[in-house]
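Researcher: Hi, I'm a grad student and pretty new to this. My advisor asked me to get structures for two proteins we've been looking at. I'm not sure of the right format, so I'll just paste the first sequence and hope you can take it from there.
Model: That works fine. Here's the first sequence with its structure tokens right after it:
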Amino acid sequence: MKIIVTGARGQLGSQIVEDINKGYSEIGELPEVIKNAEVLGIDVEELDISDLNKVKEFISIQRPDVVINPAAYTNVDGCESNEQLAYQINALGARNLAIACEGIGAKLLHISTDYVFSGEGNVPLKEYELPAPQSVYGKTKLAGEEFVREFCSKYYIVRTSWLYGYNGKNFVYTIMKAAQERGVLKVVNDQKGNPTNAEDLIHHLLKIILTDEYGIYHCTGEGECSWYDFASKIVEYGNIECIVNPCTSDEFPSPTKRPTYSSLDNMMLRVTVGNEVREWQKALKEFIKRQNRTY
């Protein structure tokens, strides 16, 4: 099996490549066919996914069995001020990979986001719920989903949220650094979602691609919380002396309308490959124990 991973210098893409090469995730051993797979990690330096002709040529030459696409323009505020770039990467990039994969009969696993939903309500969202994005980031990611569904017959779309991993920048590292430096933090308590450890997500991505269970998946940490709850547990598990105070979103004005409630339900996992995703507190505790950054 040959697997291409886009965005391989990003937080998720780099960790996918590492886990395949190791042959296991924190949840457990990976299937033998994954352990023995040839994995090729690429980023914009190797391939600009917004260029259709280059994507078709590259995929045609490499002829992977599966393409995993975490590549995205994820700066949500940046998307608001640079809509064209967001569309090129999040929408056209997904379209181009879908067209190229279809051309050689390859599978495409595309990473998407909770931002495709309105962010309203109070019940975890299942895969069949109607999207209604409120931000440019969410709208361009939804456009990418629609292109994948239109142009590739062997697709998996996996939506995740509040992702953190060992590589790159994320909320956990930001809070740990700020807590150590300041000793007092204010974190919003009126936005709820699912913190997701990249190890949990990756383990399930690599199970999904071995099946013909095509369609849309949600894959997020089990259980929901607010950003304040999340930050409080980061400080607690990190044994950092810091006071975390709750506040409202109004105290941190943003050009982007962020979801007030975006918890996702991993229903498709439960009824297909099985849901082994850990409770978010357990996964976070393990992450903080294993991470080795100093601030």
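Researcher: Oh nice, that was easy. Here's the second one.
Model: And its structure:
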Amino acid sequence: MHRQLTPIHLIARASAWVGGITLLACALLISLDLILRKLFGISMGGADEIAGYVLAIVSSWAFPIALLKRSHIRVDILYSRLPLKPRVGLDLLALLGMAVFVGALLWHSSQVLLDSIHYRSVSTTPLQVPLWIPQSLWFAGYLFFAVTIVMLGWSSLVQIRQQRLTAVSALIGIHSVEEEIREEVPTSRFDTDKGAR
């Protein structure tokens, strides 16, 4: 791993853990609300609203970890048959395309946030949540995603300058079939099978 990416990896991993725990807490909250409604005819109120905010925030913070783990879906019918150099070119093109897309997301989410701050918007529910609070966390997730893309792009260009195309492919490329097998099958078993051949 490139040293410059270590803080990005740490933040992304921490956000994934926090997001997972928060989603679990929301599921428990909604379950409790449903049980109270069914058994006692009462509702805590706002569980669905809170879950909506959490889902939007956690989603925006999940994108960077998916990018770092190379989990985003890409069509690889032609890609996998190309030599390394054109594959790296396509990887950079894909990263640039994602940067443009995230730039648009970042711009629009910032406008939504600024409008909520300017108009002092609150949710039209009994909770009356000031919308800038969940929207700030939502925007921060997209901002971190943009930073992740920039850092990956920079690290890739540094590796290209050093003629380390394999390292670039490992950083931003698509998982090879062998890598996918290694993730699914325990390492010792994979190595044993490979040695047997």
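Researcher: Is there anything I should tell my advisor about the second?
Model: You could mention this: The chain has a mean pLDDT of 89.
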